[in-house]
């Protein structure tokens, strides 16, 4: 069914209800069938990045430089990338730790409020029993 278009298709909770081309019959198709008919239309970003990386690697390997100069360039870029990853990881760790500390403080505040509320409720129940 790949390539067929479903004109006038109406969406339902289970999928689409559409009139089959050239037959006039109405038939429901599931969301999976719709996915199979339309093909995969996901993000092209992974493919773009793969192509970009391949292009950069080929450009470096085929560049008109001597082998030693190319190896030196690759080594410098690898070291720069390593430094960038370490810096980014450290910044991410700092951010996560600060967010965790803030969340921990907020949870403690909420627990304290709930504890006070529970104590007041328990105290009120004790007073009610004493008044009876």
Characteristics:
mainly alpha; three-stranded antiparallel sheet; 10% strand
Write up what this structure looks like.
With 132 residues, the protein is mainly alpha-helical. It has a domain at 68-128. 69% of the residues lie in helices and 10% in strands. It is built from 3 helices and 3 strands. The protein has helices at 31-38, 45-62, 67-131, and strands spanning 10-12, 15-19, 26-30. It has a 3-stranded antiparallel beta sheet. β1 (10-12) and β2 (15-19) form a beta hairpin. The longest helix has 65 residues, at 67-131. The radius of gyration is 32 Å and the shape is elongated. Mean pLDDT is 75; it is low at 1-7.
Gap between N and C termini: 77 Å
Work out the strand percent.
5-15%
Q: What is the chain-wise order of helices and strands?
A: EEEHHH
List the total number of helices: 3
In percent, how helical is the residue content?
A: 55-70%
Structural class: mainly alpha
State the low-pLDDT regions, or none.
Answer: 1-7
Q: Mean of residue pLDDT?
A: 75
- How would you describe the shape? elongated
Output the strand order for the largest sheet.
1-2-3
Task: Work out the number of β strands.
Answer: 3
Radius of gyration: 32 Å
Sketch the major β-sheet.
3 strands, antiparallel
In brief:
With 132 residues, the protein is mainly α. 69% of the residues lie in helices and 10% in strands.
How are the SSEs placed, and which strands pair?
Blueprint: E1 10-12, E2 15-19, E3 26-30, H1 31-38, H2 45-62, H3 67-131
Antiparallel strand pairs: 1-2, 2-3
């Amino acid at each position: 069914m790949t390539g067929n278009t479903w004109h006038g298709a109406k969406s339902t909770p289970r999928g689409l209800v559409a009139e089959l081309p050239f037959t006039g019959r109405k038939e429901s198709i599931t969301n999976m069938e719709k996915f199979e008919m339309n093909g995969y239309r996901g993000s092209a970003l992974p493919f773009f990045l793969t192509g970009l990386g391949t292009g950069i690697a080929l450009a470096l390997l085929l560049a008109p430089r001597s082998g030693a100069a190319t190896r030196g360039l690759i080594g410098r870029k690898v070291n720069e990338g390593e430094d960038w990853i370490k810096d980014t990881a450290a910044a991410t760790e700092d951010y996560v730790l600060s967010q965790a500390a803030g969340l921990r403080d907020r949870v403690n505040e909420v627990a304290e409020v709930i504890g006070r509320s529970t104590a007041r409720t328990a105290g009120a129940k004790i007073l009610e029993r004493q008044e009876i």
